[in-house]
Design brief:
Layout lengths: L8 H10 L1 H7 L9 E5 L3 H6 L8 H7 L3 E5 L6 H14 L4 E4 L21 H12 L11 E6 L7 H13 L12 E10 L4 E7 L2 E7 L8 E7 L3 H17 L1
Parallel strand pairs: 1-2, 2-3
Antiparallel strand pairs: 4-8, 5-6, 5-8, 6-7
Length: 248
Amino acid sequence: LETTGLADPGPIISTFWLDPELCSDIFLDVWFSGVVTVVDAKNGLSDLNKNPIQGISVPVRQVALSDVILLNKTDTVVKEALENIYSKVKSINSSALIMKTSFSKVNLDKILDLGAYSGIKENRIKHLINEVATMEMKEHIEDSVCTVTLKPNVVLSKESIDRFMELILWREDLKSKKGGDVEIIRAKGVINTGKEYLMLQCVHGTYDLLLINPEEDVQSTLILIGRNLEKDTMMDLLNKCIAETNIS
């Protein structure tokens, strides 16, 4: 499904991801696999740097919700410009696979059958977790969008994750330490409950936990992409939810 350059993919993702019957009944053998976004290496930086009057711009949302990003027209820019747009895209969504292309030439295996919203391809999930967890998260300026990784050192329960997701998604007064409104665009990860593994998927204000069977032991890891995210603030909130559910 190809959208326009001005489309917010969030509502489309939630429609196909949360309603698989829609795909099977209407579109026969069609299912939601993931989001691929093409970013113009020459003009993309100016689009991503534009500040909307309110909220998050559509170009930034498109990058934040992507599973694979094609940084295209790399043949039209100098090395420094390419590094700048690459760094900008990476700062917004450090969990996506970013490929530099010219004329959008790419191996189709890299953009088809991603399985980004299913529990089938655990190797992809493990690769994603390892990549993001090893990145140094930099402080971000007010109203910027970035990726934050949380790795609690305790076993998590489904109840604690439910409470945490409800707070960060639906609590309207949630603020950063600088007073900015916190907004989650995308969240994903793997939850180790001590008895089973759950894959977290969240987009457009809706989340789901899917039972998966990884080949080896995996530490619980949450990846949050959004606005005004502070790693220590999110970690404190998660620990609070863990403590509250353990008491109850």
